[in-house]
């Protein structure tokens, strides 16, 4: 797929057409069946299941995955009505969350009903044992457009490779096949529909092979009998020991002989459904959450071993921090968390302190608050559980309301329940917002982000007074709230693109932006032979024209911008002397960059200028972005007319040490993005143009700060 971009863009249309023909060849069944066992072959990766056992994942060839994904997109909409209201694991956004919310609402409302029981169905090795004959029959019946491709992959045993061993895939669907969940659901659905048509149940919901049945105890017992009787015909064998029966108020009839197997599990306090708690006992849910928090903290400890703050922060934000708890935060009411969120936040703060200051001094309450703000508010985008608790559960309940209503309809329950009411009350009291009174806003996409924006805006509005911020702290914070000031934090470490900093440099940049005192030792400035005793934060180091000073940062940004233009296919020159002279006849400096034929066939000079908004004066009436705008105007006044007279266009590219960009700089980068996309269908580099430029600015600032070492923590 890399051939669709870069220098190969000249042939990308033909290549894409060829790929399309190959995909259609497979879907139409025109590939010889004898090749099926090779095309469907895959290396095996054994993954340990949370409850023990091994889950073999088959990662097939790119052609296998591509054709299957195209096929899934093709038939998905046509099968939606067939699965609707019963199977929530295929093509249903938020299906797992909806099941959990519906079950907890049901337990809240009718947990004291002694006549009900909840059955959690567990099949033994379901995906690997499902009957292939039934699967192929259901595919022909429900989605014939896929039948030739599925038969090609599954009608004969495929080769599976594990180390030096070659196995044959003779049963079930391959876990790792993009079509696997859909194929399994097709086999299961006739049994699910038979249960729906044969019994009067309060609730029936399936997430792939995980089934939940709620109804009259005797009726639920008959459902279990049906599953045990008919399931093996589909290759679905009940694992009785892992199948669970639960209700907050146990029905004595469930103990009668012959109603349920004697070996069926009977938890007393609650059950875990799809990884979330269903119970009326706060203790049960809290224990489950505590275990998840413990595992997350242990994972953060393991990541810390890599001893690379840049990678640690990226992983902490993306996959090893709060992201491990998002499902719990969205499916458990805030009271279930108890003190677990405090324990997580304490561990998170410790990791952030280590990343920023190597566990040294200076990471105080304001630094912790600022670090856990989102990017657009000047933070590091690492969220604390104590913040997310205010809106995650509420967002999930609202986003899955329609699915919950469909599940709850047989029960007749309409009341959203006390947990939802408490979540609404807490959010409203915390934010003072009437957002939830507008049904159109609630139905809008990305609801969780909307609620998060409302919450953090309220917190940010009071932060200046709560933390008694100094004028410098306010100026620093405001400067980092620009549209592209925090883009550098999104950069993936890639040395070939210059997106890597060593530990000292990265920590210095983080410390500077968070307002951590960096210096205590007064040293003479190398450029002025003067001691700046008050420069504990590094402001002079960032604005100094010393050996590793603003010129170094300027050149780093210039070279990055030049490389961005080159990779986007733009013809540019660097440090081009266009013969400009001042009023005294003296030569002016060459153009930092010359964009050839950029403005209606005219070459355009780009002059880069960097500045620092944090000076020792002017903090009281500070306006973010003013310094880059003023510098841009100053450069235009100095060079534009001279360039015009010489037949060149002129553009000022002004940036600050905190990543602020002038309007002309933003316009230039956006135009480069647009040009890159128009030339390259993939244009993967276009999305990261702002990130690369922002990272270059931060890297230059880091070099300036490191030149003043030692700091308080290095």
From TrEMBL:
InterPro entries: RT_dom. Pfam families: RVT_1. Residues 28-261 form the Reverse transcriptase domain. This is Reverse transcriptase domain-containing protein. It comes from Saponaria officinalis (Common soapwort).
